[in-house]
Amino acid sequence: MKGPLESYLRNVYSQIFSDFDHHMSVGEKNAWGKSRMVEVRFAIFSDGSYDPPTITVSSGKPTYDHHALNAVSTYASFPPLPQGIKKPLPVCIRIAYNIDELPKDTPEWMLPPKPKQP
Fold first, then answer.
1. Model-level pTM?
2. According to a count of CB atoms within 10 Å of the terminal CB, is the N or C end of the chain lower?
3. DSSP string, 71-102
4. Domains of the chain: which residue ranges?
5. If one looks up domain 4-98 in CATH, what number appears?
6. Do 93 and 10 meet the contact criterion of CB atoms below 8 Å apart?
7. d(CA 118, CA 115)
Protein backbone atom coordinates (compact mmCIF):
# COMPACT_ATOMS: atom_id res chain seq x y z
CA MET A 1 0.00 0.00 0.00
CA LYS A 2 1.44 3.34 -1.03
CA GLY A 3 0.32 6.90 -1.55
CA PRO A 4 -2.52 8.89 0.01
CA LEU A 5 -4.12 5.92 1.77
CA GLU A 6 -0.89 4.92 3.53
CA SER A 7 -0.30 8.55 4.56
CA TYR A 8 -3.85 8.78 5.85
CA LEU A 9 -3.55 5.59 7.91
CA ARG A 10 -0.13 6.61 9.23
CA ASN A 11 -1.63 9.90 10.42
CA VAL A 12 -4.62 8.17 12.08
CA TYR A 13 -2.37 5.64 13.81
CA SER A 14 0.03 8.33 15.00
CA GLN A 15 -2.86 10.34 16.50
CA ILE A 16 -4.25 7.31 18.30
CA PHE A 17 -0.89 6.08 19.60
CA SER A 18 0.02 9.57 20.84
CA ASP A 19 -3.27 9.84 22.70
CA PHE A 20 -2.85 6.34 24.15
CA ASP A 21 0.71 7.09 25.26
CA HIS A 22 -0.17 10.50 26.70
CA HIS A 23 -2.88 9.15 29.00
CA MET A 24 -1.00 6.20 30.47
CA SER A 25 0.84 6.67 33.75
CA VAL A 26 4.57 5.94 34.00
CA GLY A 27 3.83 2.87 36.12
CA GLU A 28 1.46 1.52 33.49
CA LYS A 29 3.99 2.18 30.73
CA ASN A 30 6.68 0.28 32.63
CA ALA A 31 4.38 -2.68 33.10
CA TRP A 32 3.19 -2.35 29.51
CA GLY A 33 6.71 -2.89 28.21
CA LYS A 34 6.57 -6.46 29.48
CA SER A 35 5.06 -8.28 26.52
CA ARG A 36 1.76 -6.45 26.13
CA MET A 37 -0.06 -5.75 22.88
CA VAL A 38 -3.68 -4.79 22.22
CA GLU A 39 -5.40 -4.82 18.84
CA VAL A 40 -8.31 -2.47 18.12
CA ARG A 41 -10.54 -2.61 15.05
CA PHE A 42 -13.03 -0.11 13.66
CA ALA A 43 -14.06 1.32 10.29
CA ILE A 44 -13.73 4.91 9.12
CA PHE A 45 -16.43 6.23 6.78
CA SER A 46 -15.83 8.61 3.88
CA ASP A 47 -16.74 11.68 5.98
CA GLY A 48 -14.28 10.72 8.77
CA SER A 49 -16.90 9.35 11.15
CA TYR A 50 -16.28 5.83 12.44
CA ASP A 51 -18.04 2.90 13.99
CA PRO A 52 -17.41 1.99 17.64
CA PRO A 53 -13.95 0.46 18.15
CA THR A 54 -13.67 -3.08 19.49
CA ILE A 55 -10.82 -5.04 21.03
CA THR A 56 -9.98 -8.03 18.83
CA VAL A 57 -6.83 -9.05 20.71
CA SER A 58 -6.75 -8.25 24.40
CA SER A 59 -3.55 -7.26 26.16
CA GLY A 60 -4.69 -9.32 29.14
CA LYS A 61 -4.92 -6.12 31.19
CA PRO A 62 -8.38 -4.47 31.24
CA THR A 63 -6.90 -1.02 31.95
CA TYR A 64 -4.68 -1.19 28.83
CA ASP A 65 -7.57 -2.37 26.69
CA HIS A 66 -9.68 0.48 28.07
CA HIS A 67 -6.92 3.00 27.23
CA ALA A 68 -6.76 1.66 23.67
CA LEU A 69 -10.52 2.01 23.17
CA ASN A 70 -10.44 5.51 24.66
CA ALA A 71 -7.56 6.51 22.39
CA VAL A 72 -9.89 5.98 19.42
CA SER A 73 -13.12 7.15 21.06
CA THR A 74 -11.73 10.56 22.06
CA TYR A 75 -12.01 11.70 18.45
CA ALA A 76 -15.36 13.04 17.27
CA SER A 77 -14.18 12.06 13.81
CA PHE A 78 -11.05 11.63 11.76
CA PRO A 79 -10.24 13.58 8.61
CA PRO A 80 -12.36 12.56 5.61
CA LEU A 81 -10.98 9.58 3.70
CA PRO A 82 -8.72 10.31 0.72
CA GLN A 83 -10.55 11.21 -2.47
CA GLY A 84 -11.89 8.23 -4.36
CA ILE A 85 -12.42 5.98 -1.34
CA LYS A 86 -16.18 5.59 -1.03
CA LYS A 87 -16.53 2.41 1.04
CA PRO A 88 -15.83 2.28 4.79
CA LEU A 89 -12.14 1.75 5.49
CA PRO A 90 -11.49 -1.08 7.95
CA VAL A 91 -8.72 -0.19 10.40
CA CYS A 92 -6.79 -2.57 12.63
CA ILE A 93 -4.34 -0.99 15.04
CA ARG A 94 -1.88 -2.94 17.17
CA ILE A 95 -0.53 -0.98 20.11
CA ALA A 96 2.59 -2.13 21.96
CA TYR A 97 5.48 -0.34 23.60
CA ASN A 98 7.95 -3.06 22.80
CA ILE A 99 8.12 -3.34 19.01
CA ASP A 100 9.54 -6.86 19.41
CA GLU A 101 6.16 -7.91 20.79
CA LEU A 102 4.29 -6.93 17.63
CA PRO A 103 3.64 -9.73 15.13
CA LYS A 104 6.28 -9.92 12.40
CA ASP A 105 3.66 -9.15 9.73
CA THR A 106 2.92 -5.70 11.23
CA PRO A 107 3.31 -3.12 8.43
CA GLU A 108 5.97 -0.44 9.01
CA TRP A 109 3.35 2.32 9.07
CA MET A 110 1.62 0.61 12.02
CA LEU A 111 4.72 0.67 14.22
CA PRO A 112 4.66 3.11 17.15
CA PRO A 113 6.29 6.47 16.45
CA LYS A 114 9.97 6.50 17.30
CA PRO A 115 10.75 8.26 20.62
CA LYS A 116 11.95 11.84 20.26
CA GLN A 117 15.62 12.32 21.03
CA PRO A 118 16.37 14.90 23.78
1. 0.74
2. C
3. HHHT-S-PPPPPTT--S-EEEEEEE-SSGGGS
4. 4-98
5. 3.30.1150.10
6. no
7. 9
